[in-house]
Write a structure and sequence with these properties.
This is Lipoprotein. The protein is of the alpha+beta class and 125 residues long. Helices cover 41% and strands 28% of the residues. It has a 5-stranded antiparallel sheet.
Length: 125
């Protein structure tokens, strides 16, 4: 399988762990050709899908973290509480990625696309 195909499979796998719907369709359409990049922020590995052409970036925990959280939630029958990181962690990961590329960008808006994916719009001078 070529790299773009692997990217789409990885993105689909991460999104499939959380359910389907409008957010899933949007993420697949918007980021399907974007190769993921790993970034470390606050001691965690995050997967980053960056669209500089559109000023958009989608952040998701690593596939291992998503699978681990799903396993814990399943093993505790949902009694483990919300294992999804808080929004500021996603924002920090987005900023860490932007800084790692040498760009001095500002995040404008953010929204949860589908749990556990957040998308941010950004502008770079």
């Amino acid at each position: 399988m070529h790299f773009k195909g692997m990217t789409a499979v990885a993105l689909a796998a991460g999104l499939a762990l959380t359910g389907c719907g409008e957010g899933f369709d949007y993420a697949m359409e918007t980021y399907r050709d974007v190769p993921p990049v790993n970034v470390v922020s606050d001691g965690k590995v995050w997967r980053v899908f960056d669209r500089p052409d559109a000023g958009l970036i989608m952040i998701t925990p690593s596939l291992g973290d998503v699978a681990g959280a799903a396993a814990i939630e399943g093993a505790t029958l949902g009694l483990s509480g919300d294992l999804d990181p808080e929004e500021p962690a996603y924002r920090a990961a987005a900023m860490a990625h932007l800084r790692s590329t040498g760009r001095s960008c500002h995040i404008l808006t953010g929204r949860e696309v589908i749990e556990p994916q957040w998308e941010y719009s950004y502008r770079c001078p």
